[in-house]
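stage 2 :: seqdesign
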């Protein structure tokens, strides 16, 4: 995760992936927390709605891998000189934690569903589980999925607060470099 010294803003693809995934992930998180409202357990609609959440989650997982590969191959803009060393360190580690959550969310859900007899239907296509029906393993990964969802939400709140602080208080161009079209 190098900080390139030349670029002053993120590239178009990085910006596109950031906002596409940002909006989609917020939607998927809301969908996850509302699953029981939308389709209560033991109702006929439950399986279809859960499988929609799983299918969207897998697509998002693939997009997240694409984003990480893109990120690893492209330099990112250097921090503005006005940013203190502790702020740079905090941003770096916060972003890394966001990437970890972005990976753990789809992976934990995917692994959990392969240790359940329900398996998963990817937009209607049955994907036979590659693991045995083991409720304890399912519960472990499902628990990880749920716990990470809360950590992810906390990290996103902090991330948005920091972004708004850069935009509205510091006016240091950090927000603009991730916003399409803005230069400052
Ligand atoms: C980026 C991708 C994903 C995000 C952000 C996400 C988010 C969430 C959230 C916020 C919840 C609610 C947690 C709670 O009950 O407190 C949830 C539940 C759930 N997710 Fe995901 N999810 C993702 C991908 C997946 C995938 C790929 C699968 C399976 C293939 C999956 C399966 C489930 C299941 C089965 C539940 C219900 C858990 C339960 O209530 O016992 N999710 N998800
Ligand atoms: C699910 C929601 C979001 C996720 C997972 C997310 C994740 C990330 C990550 C991982 C980075 C680091 C990019 C890199 O250097 O590789 C980043 C940068 C950034 N994000 Fe977000 N983001 C989300 C939502 C938002 C929102 C809603 C805003 C604005 C209010 C925002 C503003 C920014 C800005 C300004 C940067 C650039 C910071 C810099 O220059 O390093 N993000 N985001």
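stage 2 :: out
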């Amino acid at each position: 995760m190098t900080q390139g010294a030349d670029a002053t803003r993120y590239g178009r693809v990085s910006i596109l992936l950031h906002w596409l995934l940002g909006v989609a992930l917020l939607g998927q998180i809301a969908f996850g927390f509302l699953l029981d409202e939308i389709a209560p357990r033991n109702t006929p609609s439950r399986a279809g709605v859960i499988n929609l959440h799983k299918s969207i989650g897998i697509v998002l997982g693939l997009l997240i891998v694409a984003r990480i590969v893109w990120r690893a191959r492209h330099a990112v803009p250097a921090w503005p000189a006005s940013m203190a060393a502790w702020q740079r360190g905090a941003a770096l580690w916060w972003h890394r934690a966001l990437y970890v959550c972005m990976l753990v969310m789809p992976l934990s859900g995917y692994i959990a569903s392969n240790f359940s007899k329900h398996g998963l239907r990817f937009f209607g296509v049955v994907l036979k589980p590659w693991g045995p029906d083991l409720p304890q393993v399912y519960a472990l990964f499902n628990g990880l999925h749920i716990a990470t969802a809360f950590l992810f939400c906390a990290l996103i709140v902090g991330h948005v607060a920091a972004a708004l602080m850069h935009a509205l208080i510091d006016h240091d161009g950090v927000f603009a470099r991730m916003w399409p079209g803005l230069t400052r």
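stage 3 :: structure notes
- Residues 12-178 form a domain with the Fumarate Reductase Cytochrome B subunit fold (CATH 1.20.950).
- The radius of gyration is 19 Å.
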